[in-house]
Amino acid sequence: xxxxxxVSAPPAPAGNPEPRRSVAxxxxxxxxxVKTGGLGDVMYALPRExxxxxxxxxxxxxxxxxxxxxxxEKMTYRGExxxxxxxxxxxxxxxxxxxxxxxxxxxxxxxxEFFSGPKPYYDLVGDIPKFxxxxxxxxxxxxxxxxxxxxxxxxxxxxxxxxVYLRTLFAxxxxxxxxxxxxxxxLRFQGIYNIDTIRYWSGLPEYVFTDPALLGQNWLDANLLxxxxxxxxxxTTVSPNYAGEIQGWEYGEGLDAHxxxxxxxxxxxxxxIDYETWxxxxxxxxxxxxxxxxxxxxxxxxxxxxxxELGLAEDENKYVIGxxxxxxxxxxxxxxxxxxxxxLDDFTQIVVLGTGDSTYEDSFRYYENTYKGQFSACIQYxxxxxxxxxxxxxxLLVPSRFEPCGLTQLNAMHYGTVPIVRETGGLKDTVQPxxxxxxxxxxxxxxxxxxxxxxxxxxxxxxxxxxDRERWNDMVLxxxxxxxxxxxSARQYKDLYLELTPW
Length: 503
Ligand code: ADP
Description:
alpha/beta; Rossmann fold; 2 domains; six-stranded parallel β-sheet; 17 helices; globular; disordered N terminus
């Protein structure tokens, strides 16, 4: 029998003066169930913060087979229905599995055929049908559950068809009255495939495959993100600086004209980090806890422990530079590769944690082998080790070619680790360059994408670390005291929801 009833998150505390709004988050990953990058962190932390601001939040995700068993076991069956699969002529099973955590309701869209395998994403051949199905099923599930949100908040190309469905196939249904927001976490990925295939899997009407909607920039393909941007009520991206950059040719990834056309809807809101997950005073993954009062001693102890763990020379006085990143072309790793020999000396160590393109994995392995005891290449995805590196390192490199927001520099600052970043995207919004005249700023920065400038920034940081420790320690404290929580950002999202629903 189909169970069909409306369940909401726990009611807000009595007397909460915040206006109440209901929001459905729709996206392809969310910590702790599935994560490949910053999107997963945002899908976890922002809903929790919004609940504290009197929002009723449901997060809709695919029920991937790769979600760890311990979470699968916690899910309860909420119901099932059958849905037309695009224009394939097939009707497919959609199950809804649910769990509630910290006041947020998580609904997982279940379909074994589409969400199987050990990873959430493969290639577009499989991913296009998967996310066409997911976007449509997410809206159908809201109707089925009879839980109609004020706002549907979608994330990245995987959920970009949601605003398109909302104003076409679902326009006359209950969920059709919701307002929509589409957040761009990374413009590089847009979901581009040939029109016939997308028409087949989405079942969307012919007229949406035109400009300025889904028709791709080459006038041949369909572009899911472009369609979503056209149909959504508001567009956000994850930093104000990136919101400006993507309207220009260099960072626009071919959508700059479309974004300029839609720019009255566009706004940048910087990400935060979750202070429960990221807290050096309580972090279960780090050997020695510390706060602002004992950061200097705490970080030294954590540095010695990490050096031991990774087989580096054990010496608390060495300058340890961390790098935690997906190893892809976006992250400025060719700049790092070019200067490793010049950075390493008897007083400096580098620790890299990441997986990705084999060229970078191999070059970092090469450096580990060549500079034994000075360079460590952890070619793996390891959350706990990431926490230990944030705690132990003196500085963290983020030399990205482009960076919509960036979370690693925020984690680093909160752990008293000085960021060395390229002035691009959210890195520019979140790291104020050191000013030697005022003794202010949070890190070291460089502007052009140039290995020499990265080396210069690293050398400036080294000079301060070795010759002016007092100022270095001031910066460490400023970093730890900087508010990088979700509070400010969640407030801006809430304001945006209220702007769209001004009753
Ligand atoms: P992106 O989303 O482009 O990958 P972000 O800086 O926004 O980059 O987010 C990266 C997140 O993933 C951070 O929380 C970072 O600590 C984490 N991370 C990246 N690589 C690894 C890794 N190899 N092991 C553990 N955590 C990682």
